[in-house]
Design goal:
The protein folds into two domains: about 150 residues, 3-Layer(aba) Sandwich (Collagenase (Catalytic Domain)); about 240 residues, Alpha-Beta Barrel (TIM Barrel). It is built from 17 helices and twelve strands. The protein is of the alpha/beta class. The longest helix is centred in the last third of the chain and has 20 residues. It starts with a strand and ends with a helix. The strands form two sheets. An eight-stranded parallel beta barrel has the order 5-6-7-8-9-10-11-12, surrounded by eight helices. A four-stranded mixed beta sheet has the order 1-2-4-3, sandwiched between helices. Bound molecules: pyridoxine-5'-phosphate.
């Protein structure tokens, strides 16, 4: 019996379909002679296992226990291991995602099986890609056209590691406080990259209150990941961007009196104007992002500008006066991220994010990149730039 299923969840469920599909999965993988045990439990039991083996005191959907651990890759084991699924979580999630229950259960079981075989999406971006590729391939084979919705879901949400682009403006703010030549944001950009960040961000403001033209030019020369130039859509800035050629331009609204960027760019009602700026930058070969409030109306307008990316403004979430308002803002961000992705945008987010509020936002699967400045520079003063960046990367990674 290659697949054995034990249902300890207390819920009644017909399992013959799942058993048959899992046996087929083993066949497709060339492992028809191996065995796997699927255990269905409730949330209480999976929380106990999650805590005991992974140190995580909360329920999860699936955990795998491999029999191959500690065994040389050459040795063959007949029993691949145990896959434990919480039926409470699985059914709740299936409902939330609008997926057929049995399809979703199958996808969790396959996910667990791939873990048993050594695939691990937590090992890095390529490992995650490989795992998703295999899950998709198996689900397509097993479900045919009926599984389209599930396959799309797996592709869209699973284990997309999020990136971190670090804004070094406030290193320049400290320098400009004394009008000296230190600390240098160029130095900060080097440290940010050495710490593993995926990009460096600078905002060249019209009033040059922190970042100077010289900073952008030198940082352009030394950045190896990507340089993001935040700027207002003015003629002066567009010309600078065309000359310096950052890897990405993020268009933001700018007012001289503001302490920092106060809201997203208003695109609705100004589509033609924004589109003109986007087109000019794209003609110069630049990737263009628009910083925008998490508002479906603004997003729909943004979709008519030709921008490649939207950066969702997280300021309202970060500044929410209490937990209820914060939760409401988080829901707005989640919905906006889904709408943005459906409109074909690459989705980023930023503003006001710090070590204490990043985790819930970092768990939004559609968001591919976070742009964070003030909190990281502030922490860097205390613990050093590399440590400050690594700590933030770690929080983002853990939330996915
Ligand atoms: N994203 C955009 C578009 C911004 O204007 C800023 C601030 O310059 C940030 C992200 C970073 O915000 P914070 O410094 O609060 O992390």
């Amino acid at each position: 019996m290659p697949v054995e299923i034990t249902n300890l969840s207390g819920q009644d469920l017909r399992l013959s379909w799942l058993k048959e599909k899992l046996a087929k999965t083993l066949e497709f993988l060339g492992l028809a002679d191996r065995e796997v045990h699927l255990l269905l439990v409730d949330d209480q039991e999976i929380t106990r296992l999650n805590m005991l083996y992974l140190g995580r005191p909360y329920p999860t959907n699936v955990i795998s226990f491999s029999q191959r651990e500690g065994i040389s890759p050459k040795e063959q084991v007949k029993h691949l291991g145990d896959i434990v699924i919480s039926l409470d979580t699985a059914l709740r999630e299936a409902k939330e995602y609008g997926l057929p229950k049995k399809h979703y259960l199958l996808s969790l079981a396959i996910h667990g099986l791939l873990h048993l075989l050594g695939y691990d999406h937590e090992k890095g971006a390529y490992a995650a890609e490989l795992m998703v590729k295999n899950e998709k391939r198996l689900l397509e084979k097993l479900l045919g056209p009926h599984g389209q919705k599930l396959v799309k879901f797996v592709q869209r949400r699973e284990y997309m590691p999020a990136k971190l682009a670090v804004n070094v403006d406030h290193v320049a703010t400290v320098r400009e406080a004394r009008k000296v030549n230190y600390p240098d944001p160029v130095h900060a950009a080097v440290l940010v990259e050495l710490a593993g960040a995926h990009g460096v961000v600078v905002h060249l403001r019209e009033d040059r209150r922190h970042i100077q033209d010289r900073d952008v030019r030198i940082i352009r020369e030394i950045v190896k990941t990507k340089l993001v130039l935040e700027m207002a859509a003015t003629e002066e800035m567009i010309n600078i961007a065309k000359e310096i050629k950052p890897d990405q331009v993020t268009l933001v609204p700018e007012r001289r009196q503001e302490i920092t960027t106060e809201g997203g760019l208003k695109v609705k009602g100004r589509i033609a104007k924004v589109r003109q700026a986007v087109e000019e930058l794209k003609e110069a070969g630049l990737k263009v992002s628009i910083f925008i409030d998490p508002d479906p109306e603004q997003l729909k307008a943004a979709a008519k500008t030709g921008a490649d990316i939207v950066e969702l403004h997280t300021g309202h979430y970060a500044e929410a006066p209490g937990p209820e308002e914060m939760d409401l803002e988080l829901t707005r961000l989640e919905e906006a991220a889904r709408v943005a992705k459906d409109l074909g945008f690459e989705v980023h987010a930023g503003h006001g994010l710090h070590y204490g509020n990043i985790s819930p936002v970092a768990a939004i699967p559609e968001i591919e990149e976070f742009s964070i400045g003030h909190a990281i520079v502030a922490r860097a003063i205390m613990v050093g730039m590399e440590k400050a960046v690594r700590e933030m990367l770690c929080l983002i990674e853990k939330a996915r």
